[in-house]
Amino acid sequence: MDSDIIVPTRVARPIDRRTAPLPPKKLYFSAPPRAQRTRWSRLQLPAIVLAGLVGGALVQDATIGALLAAAYGLVALIWRLPSRITFALAALSLVAVCAMLLLKPDGQLMGNFATYTFIFLIIGVVSLARESRLPRSPYQRKKR
Question: Which residues of the chain have pLDDT under 50?
């Protein structure tokens, strides 16, 4: 009578990777993969240093310095550079005025840098106003 009962047994089969269950997802944060460096990102720092050297030589003349700052303003508005960059330049110019006051008190050069600070602040405010504008709704009618 005991021989009439059939007990199922498990047979070990090889695991099929296509139908195997996936491992549980990670419950912790992992940093996103780093973006590939482009040609521009490799040349960006040397270009900034070169522009700083050339600009430093030309910045002593108020007219040329103001024209360079205005050219930066046009570039910032056309390429839609973030306003934080312009405000950082204004802060850097203000720090330069303070450093020159301590190290080499030359009234004309400090006045030039104060003018550049003012120009950068104006460009930053215009950029910030452009960034804060709400995008136009596609359902709004165009004004005539």
Answer: none
Q: From residue 70, how far is each of 65, 83, 124 by CA, in Å?
A: 9, 15, 12
CA separation for the pair 79, 65 (Å, rounded): 21
Measuring CA to CA, which residue among 100, 98, 95, 93 is closest to residue 117? Answer: 93
Q: Which residues touch 58 (CB under 8 Å, ≥6 apart)?
A: 64, 65, 68
* Residues 6+ away with beta carbon under 8 Å from 100: 106, 109, 110, 113
> Is the torsion defined by CA of 63, 65, 69, 71 positive or negative?
positive
Assigned token pair, 117:
């600070």
Alpha carbons 10 and 49: distance in angstroms, whole number: 72
- What DSSP character marks residue 79? T
The answer to whether the predicted template modeling score (pTM) of the entire model surpasses 0.70 is no
Residue 121's pLDDT is 94
**pLDDT for position 122:** 95
- Model pLDDT, residue 127: 92
SS3 state at 141: coil
